[in-house]
Amino acid sequence: MITKNNLRKHEFIGLEVEIVESKNKTQKGVKGRIVDETQKTIKIESKNKEKIIPKNGSVLKFVLPNGERVKIIGDEIVFRPEERIRKL
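Now predict its structure.
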């Protein structure tokens, strides 16, 4: 079960997310479902389009399956998904 305390150790694909801060101001406010993740980016399906958002310089607000909302600073999760899960 994904919780606020262990979110960084879980798979992000499939979770709802909103970009609350970004170096690129046009990405602020983007909402959708995460469909892919790389070391430096997340891909969000938003309004039937896919948008690639850099983790670095972004603040992400995740919606957990239980409805809880959790903010994560993107700089803290700049790892490949499999490394992030092992390291954190």
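The helical segments are 81-87.
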